[in-house]
Amino acid sequence: MLKFENVRNIRDMSAHGPIRPGVLYRSGNLSEATDGELNALFHMGVCSVIDLRVDREANAGPDRLPNGASLYRVPLLLNGSTPGHTAVERIKRGTAGPPKADMTEGYRMMAKQYAPAFGKALNVIADSRGASLFHCQHGKDRVGVLAALILALAHTDYDAIMEDYLATNDELAPYFMPDFTMKTAGMDETQKAVMRSVFTAEPEYLDAFFEGMRHIAPTPEDYVLNSAGIQREKLDKLFFKLGCGGYGNPSADVSA
User: Fold this and answer.
1) For residue range 157-167, what is the model confidence (pLDDT) as tens digits?
2) Which of 83, 152, 161, 203 would disulfide-bridge 220, Cβ 3.0–4.6 Å?
3) pTM, entire model
């Protein structure tokens, strides 16, 4: 796959799970994608782009799309915002908890609040005439939990799910210091320590997401069928699309 410079954190979902190569990609936003990168996405077969960003993010940096691709806006909102934005506001107000606390709780809440939007995104993937790409701003939190859910549906071992999630830290490492320096200007060391936990993918976060999901449903399949609003026929179509088996297969062990 082409080395992308302007599209952050892009990778094939087959890298860490039993998903057919070339059918599903995850990434950061496409607002600054170069013509060459858009051409690469076209040749990768990307026909459906799912934007998980909230409206203010999407309006500030609209996606550029590969030729012929359709855009689907599926905002993932947590109490009207995102975990990262909420944590940053709490840091600025001086009301944030210790490092990782706010993000961990945010991830736990994602399982309930994101379920309907997850259903919409999974429907798009199942119905896409070609490959799909889903993204948020940097491909860390919102993309991270949707990717983890898809891998769990594909009966992926939890260690591999976690490996895919934590790979974001390596993918975003080249951008970390410039972004962190800009976002923490004027903050004291205590605030910076909390902010650092907003900028990184941490095992505790993904554990909290699956803990929240287990409070809602016993398995990933039950979760998407009963909370995300996926019809069983559509779930089978998704499994066929991803090449990862079918409904009723043993679930991945998603115990933290």
Assistant:
1) 999 999 999 99
2) 152
3) 0.93
